[in-house]
């Protein structure tokens, strides 16, 4: 019988002691240095995180106010009835009647529809429309909202008008300080007014300037939110300071010297494709005070550790070596897949807790595997619910506005019909909290939405439903048709009329829905941005929401695809599996 000889090795107790004796000074010193560095980094990171959170809140407040002003400009920009009246050259009583009943009320509504005080200047090429203006200081001194009408010849020679970017429909706008804006501490949103009566030859019929006080836009920019001695600065895309809260010492000649004494934290504000910078400057001296206290504490602790460890090293190494060998034996068994090994250990110290934990780990490992599997299923369901809850029926605001207008003009029959259809739409949307609904219910919900829009648009909207009755027994995720119909009515208008065709077919084991319009179409670059959420979080959110919900529910082979040609129209295809209702 062959006897296997055991290899000699140095016991772990001696290794611990020898290592400790030779390297005690270096590790403790290194630990002290690393601890101090980690604290500084942690402190800076903590301050950076807190300030970034504050900057994000400030940025969101600024975005909200600027979006309010942009919304007003878009309200006029996309109003085809407004354009129709602006390009009319009737004179005399017809001109007065048109201006007093059609044009000026829209301007009054626009400047009163936001809490931000604005000054609106409308420059028109149609010189049959008289100029309307008063003292140039009106609205500036009392900080009230106002509007003026001028002829385009007043600005055609201005450099800022000449340098204004080439028009991209519904996209080109610019925040700019022009003329007396710097002197009056204001800024203007500039935007062309484009008549799309002839879609292939869009024509500029005017220019819109909305003027806002800078303190009104940036009232949330307050240095006291990030600490005493700090500064908050807003710079435009050219690096010029537009607004500053707090004061910097005058002895700084360049940015390099400034960075020595201040921690700089930046946040980008995207304003009409302009990248502004929100900059926070935090004095480093504030950080150094706390860092010095921690530095002294760490040095003291390192010295104490060196003295204490020198006396108890031998006892600790022996205490650990005996017990560690037991744990190593069981851990090796677990590593080899034997989860039935257990440690028999008596005592009430930490090793007893470790032994108990290892024993419990062997018993619970199978259960944990099952729980992880169930958790993944629950996570998938939770993600689906989150995406479902993110559907934003923002058309509710427009519908309520339409109801107010109908009530104002006494159109009770249309008012009653719109309210009933709105109630029907939300009854179908809620659906007792269920995500999956019958296909006829989804179609009925889309029709309820369209009935509301037909009341609003009248004969300008023509809709045709083309559904195969074979799809009636099947189910679908709710709210996959309405967002695309809403997109057509919001973005696809080409002139005063639009035709919409909604198709549903069963193709093999799948159901294919199509939403087809004869609108202005979508560029391929725009379609790519819609399905690529990186860097385009505000583009095509509703389309991505539907696509993600379908893929999450059914798999990556299903979802949304868009085919479009500019000037001809768009076809949206929604593919889901044909699953019968339970």
TrEMBL record:
Its EC number is 2.7.13.3. Keywords: ATP-binding, Cell membrane, Kinase, Membrane, Nucleotide-binding, Phosphoprotein, Transferase, Transmembrane, Transmembrane helix, Two-component regulatory system. It catalyses: ATP + protein L-histidine = ADP + protein N-phospho-L-histidine. It comes from the Bacteria. It is found in: Cell membrane. The keyword Translocase does not apply. GO terms for molecular function: ATP binding; phosphorelay sensor kinase activity. Gene3D superfamilies: 6.10.340.10, Histidine kinase-like ATPase, C-terminal domain. It is a multi-pass membrane protein. GO terms for cellular component: plasma membrane. Residues 477-580 form the Histidine kinase domain. This is histidine kinase. It comes from Paenibacillus odorifer.
């Amino acid at each position: 019988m062959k006897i296997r000889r055991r290899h000699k090795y140095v016991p772990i107790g001696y290794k611990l002691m020898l290592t400790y004796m030779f390297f005690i000074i270096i590790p403790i010193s290194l630990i002290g240095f690393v601890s101090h560095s980690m604290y500084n980094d942690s402190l800076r990171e903590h301050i950076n995180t807190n300030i970034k959170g504050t900057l994000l809140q400030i940025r969101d407040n600024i975005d909200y106010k600027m979006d309010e002003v942009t919304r007003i400009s878009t309200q006029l920009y996309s109003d085809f009835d407004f354009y129709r009246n602006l390009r009319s050259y009737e004179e005399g009583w017809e001109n007065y009647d048109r201006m007093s009943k059609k044009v000026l009320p829209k301007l009054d509504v626009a400047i009163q529809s936001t809490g931000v005080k604005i000054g609106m200047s409308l420059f028109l090429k149609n010189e049959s429309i008289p100029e309307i203006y008063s003292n140039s200081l009106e609205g500036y001194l009392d900080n009230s909202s106002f509007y003026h009408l001028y002829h385009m010849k007043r600005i055609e020679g201005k450099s800022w008008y000449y340098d204004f970017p080439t028009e991209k429909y519904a996209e080109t706008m610019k925040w700019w300080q022009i003329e007396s804006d710097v002197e009056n501490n204001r800024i203007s949103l500039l935007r062309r007014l484009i008549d799309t009566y002839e879609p292939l030859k869009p024509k500029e019929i005017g220019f819109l300037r909305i003027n806002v006080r800078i303190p009104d836009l940036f009232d949330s920019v307050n240095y006291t939110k990030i600490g005493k001695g700090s500064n908050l600065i807003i710079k435009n895309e050219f690096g010029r300071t537009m607004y500053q809260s707090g004061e910097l010492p005058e002895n700084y000649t360049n940015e390099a010297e400034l960075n020595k004494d201040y921690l700089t934290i930046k946040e980008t504000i995207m304003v009409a494709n302009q990248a502004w910078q929100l900059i926070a400057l935090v004095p480093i001296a504030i950080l150094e005070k706390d860092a010095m206290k921690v530095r002294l504490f760490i040095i003291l602790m390192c010295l104490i550790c060196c003295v204490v460890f020198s006396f108890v090293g031998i006892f600790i190494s022996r205490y650990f070596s005996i017990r560690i060998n037991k744990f190593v034996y069981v851990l090796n068994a677990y590593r080899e897949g034997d989860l039935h090994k257990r440690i028999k250990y008596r005592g009430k110290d930490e090793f007893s807790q470790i032994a108990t934990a290892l024993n419990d780990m062997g018993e619970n490992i199978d259960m944990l595997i099952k729980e992880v599997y169930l958790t993944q299923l629950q996570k998938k369901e939770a993600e689906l619910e989150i995406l479902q809850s993110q559907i934003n029926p923002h058309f509710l605001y427009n519908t309520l506005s339409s109801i107010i207008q109908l009530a104002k003009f006494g159109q009770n029959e249309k008012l009653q019909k719109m309210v009933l259809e709105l109630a029907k739409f939300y009854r179908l949307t809620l659906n007792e909290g269920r995500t999956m609904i019958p296909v006829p219910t989804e179609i009925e919900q889309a029709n309820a939405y369209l009935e509301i829009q037909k009341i609003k648009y009248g004969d300008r909207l023509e809709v045709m439903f083309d559904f195969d009755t074979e799809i009636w027994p099947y189910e679908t995720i709710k709210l996959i048709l309405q967002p695309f119909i809403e997109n057509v009515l919001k973005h696809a208008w080409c002139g005063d009329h639009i035709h919409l065709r909604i198709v549903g077919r069963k193709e093999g084991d799948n159901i294919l829905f199509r939403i087809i319009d004869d609108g202005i179409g979508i560029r391929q670059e725009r379609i790519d941005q819609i399905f690529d959420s990186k860097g385009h979080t505000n583009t095509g959110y509703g389309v991505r929401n539907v696509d993600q919900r379908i893929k999450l529910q059914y798999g990556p082979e299903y979802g949304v695809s868009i085919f479009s040609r500019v000037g001809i129209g768009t076809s949206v295809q929604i593919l889901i599996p044909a699953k019968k209702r339970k």
